[in-house]
Specification:
Largest sheet: 3 strands, antiparallel
Number of domains: 2
C-alpha cells in the first residue's frame, strides 16, 4: 500500500527492499549450504576410494579401469595390436586417454598354462 505523504512513500519503499533482501539472503545461504554438502560428499567419496586402493596404486596412479576403457584402448583387441603371446593368452598394446601406452594381457581360458 502506498501512502501519499513523502515519509510514507519512503517507508513503503524501504520495507519492500527489506523483504527482498531477506529473501535474497535466505536463498544465498541455502545455495552455500547445498554447495558445502556437495563438497563434503565428494570428499568422503574420494577418501573411500583411496581406502580401497592398494599401496602400489597410491605410489604410481590408480590402475583400475572398466572393461570398455581397455577394449577401446586396444581397439577391440585388434590383432595388429598383439605384442606378445604367453601361456595364458595374448598381450595387446593399447593407448588410453591422455596418450599413455599400456599393455593388456587377455587371458585365454582355452589353455590352462600347461
Amino acid at each position: 500500500m502506498v501512502v501519499v505523504t513523502d515519509t510514507g512513500v519512503m517507508v513503503a519503499a524501504v520495507e519492500a527492499c527489506g523483504e527482498g533482501f531477506t529473501v535474497g539472503a535466505f536463498l544465498v545461504i541455502c545455495v552455500l549450504v547445498l554447495l558445502a554438502l556437495v563438497l563434503i560428499h565428494r570428499k568422503r567419496l574420494r577418501e573411500r576410494k583411496r581406502q580401497e586402493m592398494e599401496d602400489w596404486e597410491l605410489e604410481y596412479w590408480p590402475h583400475r579401469m572398466v572393461y570398455e576403457e581397455i577394449e577401446a584402448a586396444t581397439k577391440g583387441f585388434f590383432e595388429e595390436n598383439v605384442i606378445g603371446v604367453g601361456g595364458n593368452g595374448k598381450v595387446y598394446k593399447g593407448v588410453v586417454r591422455g596418450g599413455v601406452e599400456i599393455a593388456v594381457k587377455r587371458i585365454s581360458h582355452e589353455n590352462d598354462g600347461m
